[in-house]
């Protein structure tokens, strides 16, 4: 009997995590509270996959920032803050090799700042991305979806960020 193939690359876990996260998002968007209640187990499955990807991926920012946001979505705000701080601290401007990575690294910094309540910094990073000539529709769509999930999970983030985003500094 052949053994089941094992997922070994962090991106494989990230893809599995994305499937559960998207399913959770679909359930959360439903107006039926019974359907919405099923979102949390989906988010927990997603979190498990992203954390595994983060562990085997040498603490790569991609699974890490997704795990940080998912901690918030499953009701673990301190774990979210801790991991967001770790991710933000690990990113450097020299850590990218191409323009696509630059967009995602900046988006990761923005999301980490949002999770940390550093709304002015998040605003700066998001505006930097939106002003970039390399920013494409899929970048915007991905960031918008993630920010909406964060806002839906905690009104403090929505209120604080909107105040900083709409007010010139």
Structural write-up:
The protein has 169 residues and is mostly helical. It has a single domain (10-166), classed as Alpha Horseshoe (Serine Threonine Protein Phosphatase 5, Tetratricopeptide repeat), CATH 1.25.40. It is 76% helix and 0% strand. α3 (39-56) packs antiparallel against α4. The longest helix is centred in the first third of the chain and has 20 residues, at 10-29. The mean pLDDT is 88.
Structure described in brief:
The chain has 169 residues and is mainly alpha-helical. It is built from nine helices and no strands.
Instruction: Report the top-level CATH class.
Output: Mainly Alpha
- Strand content of the residues, in percent? under 5%
Overall pLDDT level: 88
If classified by CATH, what would the architecture be? Alpha Horseshoe
- Radius of gyration of CA atoms, rounded to a whole number: 16 Å
> What string gives the helices and strands in order?
HHHHHHHHH
Number of strands: 0
Uncertain ranges: none
The percentage helix is over 70%
Q: Report the major sheet.
A: none
Total helices: the number is: 9
Helix and strand layout, with pairings?
Blueprint: H1 10-29, H2 33-37, H3 39-56, H4 61-73, H5 77-90, H6 99-115, H7 119-131, H8 137-153, H9 155-166
Q: Could you name the key traits of this structure?
A:
169 residues; mainly alpha; Serine Threonine Protein Phosphatase 5, Tetratricopeptide repeat
